[in-house]
Amino acid sequence: MEDHVSDVIMNNITWLHLSDWHQRGKDFDRRIIRDALIKDIKNRVQISPQLKKIDFIIFSGDVAWSGTSEQYSGAINDLFDPLLQVTGLPKECLFIIPGNHDLDETEFRFLPEGIKNPFQTENEVQQWLNYEKERNYLLTPFTAYQHFVTTYTGQESPGYASIRQLEIRGQKVALLGLNSALMCRRNKQISSDGEKVNDNRFLIVGEHQIYNALNKIIDDDLKIVVLHHPLDWLIEFDQTRIESRLLSNFHFLLHGHRHYPQIRTGNSSEGDCVIISGGASYDRRIPTDPRYNSSYNFVHLNFENGKGNVYWRRWSDRRNGGAWIEDTETYKDGQYEFPLPQQLLPK
């Protein structure tokens, strides 16, 4: 068994993907789910021998509930320290990107008028992203988030075009983290139920956030881009540019936000990129909608046979008094095999 596992590890890469933790105050239900999560990850070889060695962890946004320092301190104690301990990974192998809950809306009162409402044109996007002084205004609500990530994982520029490069058994791996939440909570609509935020189709990433980063990772073997929102949440003119850039330059795109897991594979005119949605690692103990059960996944790439596997896990409040189990609702047997992007296939 051990020799087989060693062979599996040598020619493969495996990561753990979580998203949407939404740290608030002390929450007994969260503790129940967290303890079971750590147990599930600890026993991952029972899911598959392929999962013995986790190479890195990706967290695709919404660490906090409202972007405060106290919530990030809580997330370190409640989630990230236990995750690193059970996987045996150093902090440098944890890669975190921001989501809409990672901004502190109380900072909005200090922002210039020009960024208090959704952008309507590409010129506005360029005006506020192309110059560091203006860009820093957009990052002001992420101050606590950026301090937390920089201090904890050592990521540079964690709120904007964050790059982490790893070497894993001879493979150069590039992780690019994008901030899709820069313009969140700007589009507020008044109805009979009061004021509601609708971010869908009012968000931007901006070509500037991607362009320079691509030059820095051009020689890496495996390229993964991570952002919180699905691409179809971007305003149309931004999605058109961003989608083409990402799908043609990355092998994998990981995101969160939708609170349900999903995978899209296959060649398109724009590129051969696998898109994986992470689900929510903690929404609530018993979901109000069965589609949005708490979930996470492992991804395993086999460079010898040119195949990848996603192992889907979901929370069950009924199994053994509460446990993480194979997510057979997302796919049969809780796993999905897919062909690696063409550029990663054995030569």
Notes on the protein architecture:
Belongs to the cyclic nucleotide phosphodiesterase class-III family. GO terms for molecular function: hydrolase activity; metal ion binding. The chain has 347 residues and is α/β, with parallel strands linked by helices. It has one domain (2-344): Purple Acid Phosphatase, chain A, domain 2 (4-Layer Sandwich), CATH 3.60.21.10. The chain has helices at 2-10, 28-42, 44-47, 69-87, 122-129, 132-139, 143-153, 208-216, 236-249, and strands at residues 12-18, 56-59, 94-96, 162-168, 171-177, 188-191, 194-197, 222-226, 252-255, 261-264, 267-268, 271-272, 274-278, 295-302, 307-316, 323-326, 335-339. The protein is globular. Mean pLDDT is 93; it is low at 1-8.
Characteristic key phrases:
Purple Acid Phosphatase, chain A, domain 2, 24% strand, globular, Calcineurin-like_PHP, alpha/beta, 17 strands, seven-stranded mixed sheet, iron, disordered N terminus, 347 residues, Metallophosphoesterase, six-stranded mixed sheet, metal-binding
In short:
With 347 residues, the protein is an alpha/beta fold. The chain has helices at residues 2-10, 28-42, 44-47, 69-87, 122-129, 132-139, 143-153, 208-216, 236-249; strands at residues 12-18, 56-59, 94-96, 162-168, 171-177, 188-191, 194-197, 222-226, 252-255, 261-264, 267-268, 271-272, 274-278, 295-302, 307-316, 323-326, 335-339.
